[in-house]
Write the structure tokens for this entry.
Amino acid sequence: MKTKYIFFTGGVVSSVGKGVTAAALGRVLKERGFKVAVQKLDPYINVDPGTMSPYQHGEVFVLDDGAETDLDLGHYERFIDISLNRVCNVTTGQVYHEVISKERRGDYLGGTIQVIPHITNEIKRRIGLVAKTTGAEIVLVEIGGTVGDIESLPFLEALRQMRSDVGRENSLYIHVTWLPYIGATAELKTKPTQHSVRELRSIGISPDVIVARSDVAVTDDLVEKIALFCDVEKRAVLPMVTAQVLYEIPLLMEQLGVGDYILERLGLEARCKPDWTEWTRLIEEVKREKPSVKIALVGKYVELHDAYMSVREALKHAALATGVEVDIAWVHSAELEKGRGWDLVEEADGILVPGGFGSRGIEGKIQAIQFARENKVPYLGLCLGMQLMVVEFARHVFQSDDVNSTEFDRSTKYPVIDLMPDQRAIADMGGTMRLGVYPCELQPGTVAARAYQTDLVEERHRHRFELNNAYRDELYKAGMRFSGISPDGRLVEIAELADHPFMLATQFHPEFLSRPNRPHPLFVAFLKAVREQADVHIKQPIIEAVKVTV
Ligand code: GLN
């Protein structure tokens, strides 16, 4: 079968869930027996989001092959349960980088290099690579931003050309818009949608399907109005009301009949009947009332929850498997340093320190980890959360405050976390970390091995620093267990404390491999420990009350 392409553009405003729409539709098509892949085209000039602040961009999602990508790829992988690769996230930066390098090599034989055709050809080449490298039969391509942005023009032009390149029957354009609600008159407005469709038409793309997102129910006459003004069939207007549960969206789409409509338009026949039994059970479980546990997520970018998207999702997935509701308390580590926010940590049934970079708030995280260790509160550390667990434990073992990661103090007396020799000479910041999947051997009899129920796993990484092997013996003697080690024995991948109900941390990022129907074993083990311990532990604040002397 010839590869089919579905292109997603956005209109009116951004952040209305274009990524989730593409992901959910991917699932709807996969349920009909097709192999799908999703690609995100990001119009910004950065080569990848790896060097961007999470405040700007939210989480950086890491793929198996080590690509640092947009967080929408996380949605795609979780909804469709697939593993994507490097070609599935393209940025303007990558496209220009490639074209300019070719020009410098003389590959264009003296030609003048222009946006059309050189940049658009490179974009199309990259779209073509998705089917080649993933074997997908249906490729969904989402373009970031909204129609009308200057940056996205070359991408839209490439998408326009794709229709004549691959044929009308092999391509479909889906435009995702927003219907604003006017409180004063209690009505939804379609005018911005009409305008954005007109704008899209002016660059030569006529949408085949319109996804009209809104916060309130969309009446049938509005659907008809959109169909009429935007010149699409009524069946092709999908009113998508903001869902209570994210993972409900594929089911809502199914109810709207979108899967069958799209197959019809692409001249395909479903290979099997979609089976939503497991998915429906999942949603029922989400909606069932469950005892709630509080997890303090101690981080640096907590104001922006998107910065910890996969961690939050992994907690939710594991919560479904353990029969609890997770209530996340977002704790700013720099605030803890000032003595604020400790009530959230003290009330929590479990503490989690996720990944991070830079020195701000480090001591606050270390204090929260100390609290977890001393009060036997279940703790899960991810990447930086492992490095700081090691620093905190070593400070206690060596009875010294002069213990650190060399990321934060180059001349520390006890550099328990340090660069590996092969990282020392690297000056470039972009794409030079230890990235992507690496194997990890689990040590029998440890909490990690019991959780995974296997002896070898592969997990995704994104870090520069490692546990310093010079301290392994001393830390081991004091009760730290290295429950996951790289097969060559050089790198500690998982550390845990022997004398604690659950104090475990990973150098890798398990959150990237968690799926709604396949929760990550370590997150499940963490929440099981949390559930068992809830309300059992004695909490003593580590910030001592000021002593008044008379
Ligand atoms: N900053 C640490 C490192 O580079 C941890 C990175 C992370 O948490 N992803 O090793």
Notes: The chain has a mean pLDDT of 92. The CA atoms of residues 40 and 142 lie 5 Å apart. The radius of gyration is 25 Å.
